[in-house]
Design a protein that fits this description.
Layout (H helix, E strand, L loop, with lengths): L5 H7 L31 H4 L8 H7 L21 H9 L24 E5 L4 H6 L5 H13 L8 E4 L13 H18 L3 E5 L1 H8 L5 H4 L4 E3 L4 E6 L2 H6 L4 H12 L5
Parallel strand pairs: 1-2, 1-3, 3-5
Antiparallel strand pairs: 4-5
Helix pairs in contact: 1-6
This protein binds iron/sulfur cluster (SF4).
C-alpha cells in the first residue's frame, strides 16, 4: 500500500491548515510548519500551573494532588497482577458490573508494552465488542488517520478504553460501571508508564481527571497525571469528529500539544 504523506492525511482529516495556536483558540490563524518544528501551545512554566479559568475541579487535578493520583475505588478490589497480559486475562474473567452479562467479549486494549503514547477512549462499541479490539469501524479509521498524521502507526501506540465492556446500545457508561472498571485502566497506566496520555472524549477525560467540567473546558491544557506526573491532554473523540468534522483542526492542535510533551 502506498504510504500517505502527512499533508495528504491531514487533508483527508479535513485539515487544510496546521493550527499551532492555543488549542482553545483553534480558530486562530494557522501556519504551515512541520510537526518537528511546531511550537508547544503551553510553555514549560505554564504546564505546571493550574488552568487559568477552568474552575476548582481542574485546579485540583492539574497538580499532583490526591484528586489525580490513581487510587483504586474502595468498592472494587484492585487488580494485583503484575503484567499487561495477566491483567488482560483478569479483565476477560471480570464480572464486577452488569456489563459482563451482555458483552461478546472484553476489549482490553492493544499496543506495545513500551508505547510512548497512550490513547484512552470511552467504551467498546458494537464493532469493538464483536472484534475484541478498540477503535475499529469508521471512528477507528479516522483515529488511524490521526495517528498517521503524527508519523506513527497504530502498532506504535497503546489504545485503551475507560470501560472494557460495551454498554448496551452504546449508551454513556454509568457511574457505577466506571467505578467498577477504573482499577483496570489505572493498572494499565501503571504498567505502561507512557510518556503522554491523550484522553479521547468527555467520558475518558472526566474519568481520568476526576472532573465534571465539559470537554471544551478541559482541552487545551497539560495536566500532570498520577504520581509520575505523566502529561495528559484532552481532545475530542473520533466518533464526535465524524459528526462535527469542523472540529478536526482543534484535535490536530491538541495532538501537537501532546506531541510536544514527549522528550526528544
Ligand atoms: Fe468488569 Fe469493566 Fe467489564 Fe464491568 S466493564 S464487567 S468492571 S471489565
Amino acid at each position: 500500500m502506498v504510504e500517505l504523506d502527512r499533508n495528504t492525511i491531514l487533508k483527508q482529516m479535513g485539515i487544510t491548515q496546521w493550527v499551532l495556536q492555543d488549542a482553545q483558540a483553534g480558530e486562530n490563524p494557522a501556519q504551515d510548519v512541520p510537526l518537528s518544528q511546531a511550537q508547544p501551545v503551553l510553555d514549560k512554566a505554564s504546564v505546571n500551573e493550574p488552568p487559568a479559568k477552568a474552575g476548582g475541579d481542574v485546579k485540583a487535578i492539574a497538580q499532583p494532588a490526591p484528586g489525580v493520583t490513581p487510587v483504586a475505588p474502595s468498592q472494587t478490589a484492585e487488580p494485583k497482577l503484575l503484567s499487561l497480559e495477566s491483567l488482560r486475562a483478569e479483565v476477560a474473567e471480570c464480572v464486577a458490573c452488569a456489563l459482563a452479562k451482555a458483552r461478546t467479549q472484553t476489549v482490553f486494549g492493544e499496543g506495545p508494552d513500551q508505547a510512548d503514547w497512550l490513547f484512552v477512549g470511552e467504551a467498546p462499541g458494537q464493532q469493538e465488542d464483536r472484534q475484541g479490539q478498540p477503535f475499529v469501524g469508521r471512528a477507528g479509521g479516522l483515529f488511524t488517520q490521526m495517528i498517521k498524521a503524527l508519523d506513527k502507526s497504530r502498532e506504535q501506540v497503546y489504545i485503551a478504553n475507560t470501560l472494557k465492556c460495551r454498554p448496551p446500545g452504546n449508551r454513556d457508561p454509568l457511574p457505577d460501571e466506571l467505578q467498577a472498571c477504573e482499577p483496570f485502566l489505572l493498572k494499565q497506566i501503571q504498567l505502561l508508564q507512557p510518556k503522554v496520555i491523550v484522553a479521547l472524549g468527555r467520558i475518558s477525560a472526566q474519568a481520568l481527571l476526576r472532573s465534571d467540567q465539559p470537554l471544551g473546558r478541559l482541552r487545551g491544557q497539560v495536566y500532570q497525571y498520577g504520581p509520575n506526573q505523566i502529561p495528559l491532554i484532552v481532545t475530542y473523540h473520533p466518533a464526535y469528529l465524524l459528526r462535527q468534522p469542523a472540529d478536526k483542526a482543534k484535535v490536530w492542535a491538541d495532538l501537537l500539544l501532546a506531541h510536544r510533551q514527549i522528550p526528544l
